[in-house]
Amino acid sequence: MRALIVLVLLAVLVMAATCYESHESMESHEYLNPFLNRQRANGFIRDDTGLRAVLQERIRERNKAPQERQREICEDFHLCEQYALNHGYPAAYRHYFGRRRNK
């Protein structure tokens, strides 16, 4: 009889140790509601229109107008940028880069 009581107590202890609901599992919000609503589900999935807009922006970056390329070149050169503040970017580009000399 004593062995049966010890065996039952041991079984209860093993069951309590293995079936315990830890506090970490209760912290998860999925425990109470495992399903997402439509707004949250669509928050991390991009649609085709968003991808198409990104692709168009990349194409526009590659095919820049000549004036925009000249302005960026002038902005990288400090003296040209200072000249552009007084006379404008087209005049500054012509002043510093317009007359290239070939040696």
Summarize the structure.
With 103 residues, this protein is an all-alpha fold. It has helices spanning 2-18, 23-27, 38-42, 48-62, 66-76, 78-87, 89-98. The N and C termini lie far apart (110 Å).
Care to describe what's here?
This protein is mostly helical and 103 residues long. It has helices at 2-18, 23-27, 38-42, 48-62, 66-76, 78-87, 89-98. α6 (78-87) packs across α7. The mean pLDDT is 79. 71% of the residues lie in helices and 0% in strands. The protein has a domain at 64-102.
- Choose one word for the global shape: rod-shaped
Mean pLDDT value: 79
- Strand content is under 5%
Q: Describe the biggest sheet? A: none
Order of helices and strands: HHHHHHH
Give the number of DSSP strands: 0
Q: Distance N terminus to C terminus?
A: 110 Å
Number of helices: 7
* Cα-atom radius of gyration: 35 Å
- Estimated helix fraction: over 70%
Which class of secondary structure composition applies to the elements?
Answer: mainly alpha
- Low-pLDDT residue intervals, each spanning 5 or more residues: none
Protein name: Matrix Gla protein
Organism: Gallus gallus
Modified residues (4-carboxyglutamate): 21, 57, 61, 68, 72
Signal peptide: 1-19
Secondary structure blueprint with pairings:
Layout: H1 2-18, H2 23-27, H3 38-42, H4 48-62, H5 66-76, H6 78-87, H7 89-98
Helix pairs in contact: 5-7, 6-7
Function: Associates with the organic matrix of bone and cartilage. Thought to act as an inhibitor of bone formation.
GO cellular component, one term: extracellular region
Protein name: Matrix Gla protein
